[in-house]
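Holo prediction. Input below; ligand is iron/sulfur cluster.
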Amino acid sequence: MQRRELFSSLASSLKGEKKQEKQLRPPYFGDESLFHNECNRCDGVCATVCEEDIIKIADDKTPYILFSYNGCTYCDKCTDVCEFGVLKLEDKKYLNAIITINRDKCLSWSHTMCFSCKDPCLDNAIDFKAMFMPEINNKCTSCGFCISRCPTDAIDIKVL
Ligand code: SF4
Ligand code: SF4
Ligand code: SF4
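Structure of the complex:
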């Protein structure tokens, strides 16, 4: 197995299970309190229509994003099916998080060649300075596609 494949297989075992202090919500909400007031009347249909399978339903019946293997395509499907006015198209925005690379955990920053996060980033938001210094630039949409690809869990999510 080539090193890059090995890294990918290691990454898949991480399943995006990052510890977050706040829940990362789908990208169409204006008022956090609506999740708590309305979602308990719903069967979590937003989670069932997400083709990327990144919406999970918490114990309190509110939806949150987990970047298990995929990311958000901003396809609008979760908001299209929300009948309780929690997710609304007029509130569409990028996911409410800042994505950064932790240099202490990143292989490239330790001079081991790795470009695993670059390929899935369709927004060209990761610059590799001098080959070994990846940094996320301001084109990042917080889509999360890079996160599960990192073999050392070096991409952090800060929920705003
Ligand atoms: S916008 Fe699409 S990909 Fe993103 S969470 Fe909603 S259904 Fe899933
Ligand atoms: S579809 Fe709307 S009401 Fe139902 S769980 Fe999702 S956000 Fe909540
Ligand atoms: S760097 Fe940003 S835009 Fe690129 S894949 Fe990661 S989260 Fe998405």
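The chain has two domains: 32-91, 96-159. That is the main takeaway for now.
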